[in-house]
Amino acid sequence: MTRIRSIVRGIGSYLPTRVLTNQDLEKIVDTSHEWILQRTGIEERHIVAEGETTSMLGIKAAQAALADAGLQAQDIDLIVCATSTPDFTFPSTATQIQSGLGITHGAAFDLQAVCAGFVFAVSTADKFLASGSHKRALVIGAETFSRLLDWNDRTTCVLFGDGAGAIVLEAAQGEGTAADRGVLTSHLRSDGRYRDKLYVDGGPGSTKTTGVLKMEGKDVFRFAVGMVTDVVRDAFAATGTTADDLDWFVPHQANRRIITASADKLGIAAEKVVITVNKHGNTSAASIPLALDVARKDGRIKDGDLVMIEAIGGGFTWGSALIRW
Ligand code: UT7
Fold first, then answer.
1. Active site includes 134?
2. pLDDT of 126-149, one tens digit each?
3. Do 162 and 134 lie in a common domain?
4. N or C: which end of the chain has fewer CB within 10 A?
5. Confidence of residue 226 (pLDDT cuts 50, 70, 90)
């Protein structure tokens, strides 16, 4: 049965210019390049400049995605920005991006699912487009996690980085089969019992402060490898596809060991796995669109390729989306 699909029309990203290497971190906390590389796969990450905000990164990523799509800002009627590091408590970062792009029509809102934010945003925008209510969406993941870190805590400050990525999704008629282009399926999960495993210890409704990031790394690691595979299997089952059908697996980039363990468990060949955590660190909601942009621009992701994205973040929240490019 024919149905509306959300097709990827364009992609773009932006990284702040300042690069912070593991060697730089050795001067800030008691750590070593060897420990960080061996435990996480991270070599360096980008960090925003003084005064540079999440919406500024998001605007640059969105402009790059629009240029890639050959579209004007005015062609967009929906902006969904996934972020846990908004410029302000309100108004939303999405409205700041909307204004920065010069758009005054349509709707713009933020979505907060921490590191799973981009997958949640793709799923949400897809449902808007599939309903017929909107035609072209900018789906953005933008973060300045450097502002949430305790720079004296070596167990967390070495892991994260800043950046933004964006895709343009456009409504188009599909056949309703897995051969269609666009978002074929998405599967979202949450379980708030795990709040204390990964959280920020402040907020406007509790401490009236921003707070800093806290994490039980080992527990998050175990959960990440254990649970994310479920939503990926759900995506395969919903579309009648298997790991062999995938062209690319583009997971959230938190830790190389989590990525390879998940791929192994799912039977996804190592050469199909896109890894950018070495250069970006964990950029939370921005990590997947940043990785997608790298793999699209270097020629790996081609039109028609089947791409699985998946992520897990604080909450916990986790999800997958299967996209035919
Ligand atoms: O985006 C979703 C959220 N985040 C994640 O997915 C992260 C999930 N977790 C992880 O990636 C890993 O658990 C970490 C990379 C955070 C930690 O790796 P680990 O292999 O689980 O190490 P660990 O926490 O068990 O720490 C091992 C040792 C400890 O020392 P002792 O107690 O064995 O003496 C830590 O104190 O490494 C020590 N350590 C460090 N040493 C040097 C912890 N952080 C550092 C550091 N440099 N930065």
1. no
2. 999 999 999 999 999 999 999 999
3. yes
4. N
5. confident
What are the tens digits of pLDDT across the range 29-54?
Answer: 999 999 999 999 999 999 999 999 99
Whether the pLDDT of residue 61 is over 90: the answer is yes
Domain extent for 239: 182-324
- Give me the count of residues in the chain: 325
18 lies in the same domain as 78? yes
Ligand 1 binding pocket includes 254 (Cβ within 6 Å): yes
pLDDT in the model for residue 227: 83
CA of 178 to the centre of ligand 1 (A): 40
Same domain assignment for residues 258 and 281? yes
Question: Is there a single domain that holds both residue 266 and residue 154?
Answer: no
Q: Which of 17-26, 71-80, 220-229, 312-321 has the lowest mean pLDDT?
A: 220-229
CA of 255 to the centre of ligand 1 (A): 11
Domain with 168 in it: what CATH number?
A: 3.40.47.10
Q: Would you say the pTM of this structure is higher than 0.85?
A: yes
Ligand 1 within 6 A of CB of 286: no
Can 282 be counted among the known catalytic residues?
yes
- Please say which residue of 147, 174, 201 terminates a domain: 174
Residue 104 pLDDT > 90, yes or no? yes
Looking at the structure, tell me whether residues 96 and 207 fall in a common domain.
Answer: no
280, two tokens = 């970006």
